Amino acid sequence: MRKTIIILSLILLPAIAWATRPVSTFSIVGCDTATGELGVAVASKYFAVGAIVPWAKSDVGAIATQSYVNPDYGIIGLELLQHGMSPQQVIDSLTRADSMFERRQVGMVDSRGRAATFTGAGCMPWAGGRVGQHCAAQGNILVSGEVVDKMIAAFKGTSGELSGKLLAALLAGDSAGGDSRGRQSAALYVVRSGQWQRYDTKIDIRVDDSQDPFGELTRLYKMARALSRLDLAYRLRMQGDLAGAVAAAKESVELNPNLPETHYDYACYLSLSGRHEQAMKSLIKAIEMAPKFRAMAVADSDLEALRGREDFRRLMAEK
Questions:
Q1: What is the pLDDT of residue 202?
Q2: Does residue 181 sit in the same domain as residue 246?
Q3: Which listed residue, of 213, 239, 240, 302, carries a Cα 20 to 30 Å from 68's Cα?
Q4: Which residue range forms the structural domain that includes residue 258?
Q5: How far apart, in whole angstroms, are the C-alpha atoms of residue 58 and residue 46?
Q6: Is residue 100 part of a domain?
Q7: Structurally, how many domains does the chain consist of?
């Protein structure tokens, strides 16, 4: 059965160039074998590169398909990985079935951390790729091979979550010159089995058109990390772990103190846990940043313990 599925997948692989012009791109695919996270970071002088290059599936793998993009490298590639083929075997199978393989570029990593990269001889220079531990970086129409070298080094030298390692690698590629034609779009996509929202997607942020896609992607990443902690806080509260919810909400504030919702939610969890003085300080901060939260606080049952306080009544009466 497995062999039949693989053969059918390769037969159905269209040997056509989906992109009408090459997607001049640099990307990195990576895996964290400890957490099971898989992801892709990509940037390009091309509109909405995040819509076509990155592919990932939890417990399976991550793929970046670029140059003259064929999206079936992502779709069928994940199917083949899921049926037990290694990244190198998948790339070999896909390119053998593709009459335009010399125009393709692809990076791939599986859930075991095995990685491979391929650059066809017809990709526009500089074009090439490197394989590192649990990652692969590749690019075309780059200023030099130093771009992918720096990406691999940054991935290896960055600690913490996979998303942070991928972003660090992308920023390192840009600092080394990146796409020789300039900047326009960037994306970061990370999956992990069992994520509460959006199926198994943990991070999915895109900058489709910007003069500073890297600065904007970094801003969105900080926001995404903070809001993910608020999601965690809510889940912990629903599970009866109020102390855990308070800790997660506090981390959200620390990750991005410029988001008023982090302060508001933190105030709610502090109020529920009986830490009323701290709750008021956080609530005041939230309303100073976004006065719309005043109307919400008036009827929010999470803040019931604060309603008898004079400072709360004054805060609600302010215009």
A1: 85
A2: no
A3: 213
A4: 228-317
A5: 27
A6: yes
A7: 2
Could you tell me if residue 106 is inside a domain?
A: yes
Is omega for the bond preceding 126 within 30 degrees of 0, making it cis?
yes
154 with 194, same domain: the answer is yes
Report pLDDT digits (tens) over 233-274. Answer: 999 999 999 999 999 999 999 999 999 999 999 999 999 999
The first and second tokens of residue 220, run together, are 């969105």
Q: 92-150: per-residue pLDDT in tens? A: 999 999 999 999 999 999 999 999 999 999 999 999 999 999 999 999 999 999 999 99
pLDDT per residue over 1-45, tens digit each? Answer: 455 545 545 544 554 445 545 667 999 999 999 999 999 999 999
Specify the pLDDT at position 195: 53
Give the model confidence (pLDDT) of 153-164 as tens digits: 999 999 999 999
**Radius of gyration of the chain from its Cα atoms, rounded to whole angstroms:** 23
Q: Give yes or no: residues 45 and 178 share one domain.
A: yes
Q: Are 115 and 109 in contact (CB under 8 A)?
A: yes
Cα of first residue to Cα of last residue in the chain, in angstroms, is: 68
Nearest CA among 127, 126, 124, 142 for reference residue 180? 142
